Every structure is written in C-alpha cells, then in structure tokens.
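Journal club side-thread
Mid-discussion, someone asked how the predicted structure for our own chain would compare to the paper's figures. Pasting it here so we can look after the session.
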Amino acid sequence: MSRVIRVFTEQSPTNLDEEIILPASESSHLARVLRIKEGDPVEVLDGRGGRFAAQCLQVSRSRVTVQINEVHQDSAQAPAIRMAIALGKGNKLDDLIRPLTELGVSVLTPLLTERTEGSISSSKLQDKKERWHKLAQEACKQSGNTWMPKFDDPITFTEFVSGIAHKDDCWMTSLSPYTTSFAPRRNAEKISLFVGPEGGWSPQEEEIAQVARFNSFSLGPHVLRLETAAVSALAVARQHLL
C-alpha cells in the first residue's frame, strides 16, 4: 500500500475540480524533498476537519497547484478533550505537541502552578505558539488527524480553575491514595485533564480542585516525568471514549 502524502492549506475547498495553490512551505517540501510530479495524488487538510483528495496539476520548485477530486468533512471528536499541563523546564511542552495531536487533543492550556519549573516570556510567546502550530500540522499529516488543536496562552492554575465552565468534566492526575478510576461523565461536552508538574500539585492546589469538584485519577504508583504523564493521561481518556 502506497504512503498517503498529506499537505496543509489555510483554504477550505468546497467544489470538485476546484484548483488551489498550496502554501510556499508545503509546495517547496513536495517539490524539493518528496519530488512529487504532475498527476501525483495528495490529500489536503485544512485543520478544521476538511479532508480533500487532490491531484497535482502544476509543480515548480516553490509553487504547487492541485485540483480537488473529493471533498470530505470529518466531525470533531466528541467529547472534546482539553489538556491543561504544567509548564516544565526547557522545551518539554514542545515535545508533547506531536503525540498529543496524534491522540486527538482539542485544546492545550499551559499552566503556571506553584511548583512550575518553566516559563514563557511574553516576548517569545507568539514565536512559541507558531512553533506549536507547525509541530501540530506535522503530527496531523503523519497521523491523518484532520482537526488541529488550539493553543491557549499560559495561565495560572487558580485563574484557570475559576474560569472553567461548570459543564466541563474535570479530572486531574494525582499520587494521592484517594483517587478514583477514570470514568468520564456521560454526555459531557468537554473533558479537561490536568497534569501537574513533576514536583506534584501543592496542597493549596489540591484543595482548590477539591472545592471545584474535580475528580482525581492515578496513573500508577510511580512518579512520572511530565511528558510521560501527559501522554498517558490522554491515552487513558481516549481508551474510555472508544
């Protein structure tokens, strides 16, 4: 079975035989790296559920034009899953974008907790979010996920909890012996998964979550790295929603 070549476009074609010019970065990659030729098939994604079977009409080193042969619109995964993850040192959050996108996260919210070890300066935030967007696009192309996640600005744990919708089904990972098994509420529109720093949630944050009626669930008896905990938490949630 031949590999499906996927590309991204900001456009959302609606008509068969419609011709679109792919973004310069995608065109260059197709022509120079993949050495695609006129007549070759590609699958075009718009990041909003749109999936389009297309054929390359014109190929140059910096510009590729494709013709749309089929139009599909995939429904968003329901319920939507938000991951609220404590910022870690270095580029830990960057390393999480690909696997979380492949698993179908809907929204990623970086959390500033009492034991947060990392930070993102306001001057670098836009560049960071653009990098996350690019990493998520690559993950969508690799996995076939047609929905791009949204990326929130960093927010403190307390502020986020106070502003979260009451209809959200909120779960936080915890090493507490008083956790329950993950069991999402039926008919929840959105599930919010909270993953704390490697130092754990502070007692005050645990109390805030309890007052807000968050559920706690365990990922096992061992202390996990932030990256391991985040991917494991989303995998557990997805398994229960299959």
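Post-session note: The radius of gyration is 20 Å.
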